[in-house]
Amino acid sequence: MEVLTLTANADAPFMTQQLAALERRGVSFSTLSVPGEIDETTSRDPADYLRFFPQVLGESRNGYDLVHAHYGTTAPMALAQLRLPVVLSLWGSDLHGPVSPVSRACARVCDEVVVMSPEMRDVLGRACTVIPDGVDLERFAPTSQSAARAAVGWAADEYHVLFPYSPERELKNYPRARRVVDAVDGMLERPVRLQTVYGVDHDAVSDYMNAADALLLTSHSEGSPNSVKEALACNLPVVAVDVGDVRERLAGVSPSRVATSNRELVTGLAEVLESGERSNGREAVREVSLDRTTGRLLEVYERVA
Question: What is the pLDDT of the chain when averaged over all its residues?
Fold first, then answer.
């Protein structure tokens, strides 16, 4: 099978992992990325997307079986070619954020739509396939906490709460995470440090997961946050707000907490840290292993093609 992939972020680790896993199943990909540079504070402008149209139209003539558009802003270009069926994967912020109208309008005319959680399916309000991004259980696995702390340079006599996002990403709500950790720091005898980790090589993220005592998620909205699944694979306890599929992912996982208020976040984080235990998350996350989610996406491709 030959697939043309369109993306707004060619370096997204969960997407590149997915493509590599599908290639091992016999799928061949060519990937086109929207022109222009982006970072934590800069987005592409409409001119970048206009320049993308002729690239997609030209490449789509080269014998592909389908077009897979990743993120809602690439869907108009995928649909502009009229020869091939289109699969659209929505990532979360493209359904909840300012580009939501584009995502919703295009989703109505795509051949298949893939979302990351039942909550996203309900928000979209149309038939679609729920496939969370899979977690690589070989890359993310429990290791010695002391060895991991030595590797990342964290003190052994402090609690470390992992916030694996840039503070500049407004959607992730760093100020709330800061307030929660400051409150818990005033409750416990041992110092509590909020560790913001971003921009590191994806292969190194598991070291931070194993070095931490808990992962804190305070996002305004999510689809199926990869950081939560990666934490579960490392048996790292998670304290999170009730967004996306977090409640489903944390069902039966202990110690971990799903909170609906600041008080619950503070209490839950304090209890998780004081327990000093790792979680049983690895067993729970096997349901969304990279191998299983790859098989489900391959079934979507086969239906469409």
Answer: 94
